[in-house]
Amino acid sequence: MEERIGVYVCECGPNIKDAIDLHEVVKFVQGLDNVVLTKAFGLLCAVDGQELIRKDIKEHNLTRVVIAACSPKEHENTFRQCLEKAGLNPFLLQIANIREQCTWVVKDKALATDKAKAIIHAAVRRVAHHEPLEVKEIECQPDALVVGAGIAGISAALTLAQKNRKVYLVEKLPCIGGKVARYEDVFPNLECASCILDPILDEVLHNEHIDILTLSEVQEVLGFYGNFLVKVNKKARFVDSETCIGCGACVETCPVKVTNEYNEGLDQRRAIYIPYAGALPNIAVIDKEHCLRWQGEACSACNEACPFGSIIYEETDQARQLRVGAIVLAPGFDLFDPAKAPQYGYGKIDSVYTSLEFERL
């Protein structure tokens, strides 16, 4: 069965009517395949314009409708509702934007007329291929995932949690706070960084709506807006988060010393360590890449020193699947690479430091 297409050209006051040869456009459209009705009208979005369309759909058995008017962002939903009230599937509609894309940008009337014809012709060809669609409601997950627990990530997590939404805060490092937590003072007022940050971190740690996943990284994201399935790999800490109080007894007995990346390589840390003073959560973590136990030696110094029996050598990585409706990416930033400015002698002159190295001195 051939489609019966109705085409309506909105005059939109002087916006369209005075900018093109309306009569010529209507005459052109009348000759297009499957077009059985063509009308120009003052304001199609007005009540009487919508009533005209509804009446024509029923009287002329229209199966498709083209509206040549303004941007679909303005009134596409208006005309969809109009079709639905007339008993026609609302998705059998095509908007031809001849205002923003034609009459407002083409000053020559003849050229604007030709362009309007082309836009409407394309809309007529396209609407013939439309298929009726059905509006469906799907379950939307209210939970959210925030990737990165620096100042931006924790701020986002708190904002979401204040709306009583469950938040999964994923951080690849053993602690939260990002780079700000490693600074003494912050710009522009040289305020105490920890004085500003610590109360916020404490609020995040004790918020019942926020599930903090440190030592964790996103492996895969499936789904779409409102329904994401996220696979997260949570690396083993090898220390019981429930019983460790961060006393540091285990750190003192560890025989291994390696470069301390949290102090920008300016000193050394142990294979079991708390990243820096004031790190939250205040829980030790074992670096198995440097721990003697994972090098084949029978070292258990940290376990023997721990007064709470918090060391769990047999702990393994955990794979978690999270269902969330929204994902916030707050991966942080990298500092400027001083190697790109060799004139300052970084790496050659001992007394030349980066800003973060200076903070960690």
Q: How are the SSEs placed, and which strands pair?
A:
Blueprint: E1 5-10, H1 14-17, H2 22-30, E2 35-41, H3 47-59, E3 64-69, H4 72-85, E4 93-97, H5 99-103, H6 109-127, E5 144-147, H7 151-161, E6 167-170, E7 185-186, E8 191-192, H8 193-205, E9 210-213, E10 216-224, E11 227-234, H9 249-253, E12 257-259, E13 268-270, E14 272-273, E15 285-286, H10 301-305, E16 318-324, E17 326-329, H11 355-360
Parallel strand pairs: 1-2, 1-3, 3-4, 5-6, 5-17, 6-9
Antiparallel strand pairs: 7-8, 10-11, 11-16, 12-13, 14-15
Helix pairs in contact: 2-6, 3-4, 7-8
Shape: elongated
Count of DSSP H/I helices: 11
Question: What's the helix-strand series?
Answer: EHHEHEHEHHEHEEEHEEEHEEEEHEEH
Main sheet characteristics: 4 strands, parallel
- Multimeric state of these chains? single chain
Helix percentage: 25-40%
Describe this structure in words.
With 361 residues, the chain is an alpha/beta fold. The chain folds into three domains: 123 residues, Rossmann fold; 111 residues, FAD/NAD(P)-binding domain (3-Layer(bba) Sandwich); 70 residues, no CATH class. It has eleven helices and 17 strands. Helix 3 crosses helix 4 and helix 7 packs across helix 8. The radius of gyration is 33 Å and the shape is elongated. The chain starts with a strand and ends with a helix. The relative contact order is 0.11. The model has no long low-confidence stretch (mean pLDDT 94).
